[in-house]
Each structure stands twice: as structure tokens, then as C-alpha cells.
Amino acid sequence: MNSVNIIGRITKDIEVKKTNSGKSVCSFSVAVQRDKENADFIPCTAWNATAENIGKYFHKGDRIGITGVLTTRTYESNGEKKFVMDVLINTFDFIETKKSNNQQTPSNYQPQEETGNLPFEV
What is the pTM of this model? Predict the structure, then answer.
């Protein structure tokens, strides 16, 4: 079974991009406290409406709860094979927001289960 559940802080402001086919995507890291002195930085990716909502409501320093699947891929760069692992987000939860004057967390936000969230066929 491939299931990942993490709670951590977003490490930088999120930028939502559009693919050539018009799909929304965002990639960011979540700092997850391992113990009092160490944290792991987990790369995460969201697609479509999930990406848009995360980009709209979350900012650097906010705590987020994520449920997803661990994905891996390899590619070649300058003749060297690279291995990449990240969490493909299925759902997310608001845990804690660092509020400033221009940030708002919706009190009536209802996450929706998204079908076809993956950018590829499984």
C-alpha cells in the first residue's frame, strides 16, 4: 500500500503554474519535525483544483496536513542519472495559519474529493 500522511510547515510561498495543456500544478516542500533538533524537507506536488486551492490559501510558514502517495521518477541531466521522490497530494487540511493583514483562511472551505487528480493514467 502506498499512502503518505504528513503534517508540517510550508517552506516558501507557493507558485501555481499552468502546463501547456492548461492544467494547474504547484510544487513545494514541507518541513516535518523529526525530533527536537532535526526536520525533514519533503517535496510535494499538487495538480488541478488541489493545486489552485493550496496556492490560494497557504503561504510560507503555514502548517498543512497532507495525504497522498509517494512517487518516484528518474531523468538524465548532463549525462548523469537523477532520482526524484515526492508526495503527490490527494487531499490537504488546514492545520495552522500564520495570519497577516492580507491573508485569510476561509472558515467555510470544504475540501472536495477530486477525480482525475493525477496528471497521468495509473
Answer: 0.77
- Cα(43)–Cα(2) distance, integer angstroms: 16
Identify the DSSP state of 55.
H
Residue of 68, 74, 61, 57 lying closest to 114 (CA atoms)? 68
Is the CB of residue 66 less than 8 Å from the CB of residue 89?
yes
Domain locations in the chain? 4-96
Number of residues in the chain: 122
- Dist CA 114 CA 69 (whole Å): 14
CATH 3.30.390.50 fits 4-96, yes or no: no
pLDDT tens sequence across 52-106: 999 999 999 999 999 999 999 999 999 999 999 999 999 999 998 776 545 454 5
